[in-house]
Amino acid sequence: MKKIILSITLLICVIAVSAQKVNVAAAANLRYVMEEIKAVYVKQNPKSKINITFGSSGTLVQQISNGASFDFFMAADNEFPLKLKDKGLTVGPMQTYAYGKLALYSTSIDVTKTGLSALKNPSVKKIAVANPLTAPYGDRSMELLKSQGFYDNLKDKIVIADNISAAAQYAFTSNTELGFIAYSFALAPDMAGKGHCYIIPQKMYKPIEQACILIKTSTVNTETAKFKKFVLSAAMKPVWEKYGYGVPGK
Questions:
Q1: CATH topology of domain 102-204
Q2: What are 113-155's pLDDT values in tens digits?
Q3: Which homologous superfamily is 2-100+209-242 in?
Q4: What's the pTM?
Q5: Which residue in 4, 10, 158, 250 is deepest, having the highest Cβ count within 10 Å?
């Protein structure tokens, strides 16, 4: 009888491990690159289940702080992960996985030729910017507008989007003439070649160092650590670069 109970227990443990899911909280700018990385991972690990929720880093931090069931947090900067670490909600070290780039995007104005001077174009009535309080790309956009002397003249034209993905959609659908976006969106299938994009020199704003960290959970999820290692692996660096990101070590 004891052998039967032990066998059943072992079987339950095996099933539990094989059915482990990884719930990832990822910054909105990661939508396309992470879906591609996820597809490669699942192809190599058919039994794995990777669920990714995208949103602004600040909003995701609030959700995790309120008990949302996430295993892995990938932020759009290296400050939001530290907020969770300070609250004792994480395990292991924070690690940088990519460096983001800020860009100006338009479907009606050739910003590749005009650069930031497009902000002075009288035809510009609305400019999309991600919420600077919760979205690091929005924070950098506001930083740029203020440091370059544009903000005071443009503040009434700024349309605040919930996250950088929404800001990109506003510009892409021409709801705004201009939009500050993550460069990765301009390279994504939905937007590539369908508008004009100006990559803003990185010396004009604080570096967008994107970092990740594991979330403390009630049970050990071995699949999470495995997936994190895969995301940070050398094999995935070409995927990050495909979407315009800088990668650590280069």
A1: D-Maltodextrin-Binding Protein; domain 2 (3.40.190)
A2: 999 999 999 999 999 999 999 999 999 999 999 999 999 999 9
A3: Periplasmic binding protein-like II (3.40.190.10)
A4: 0.90
A5: 158
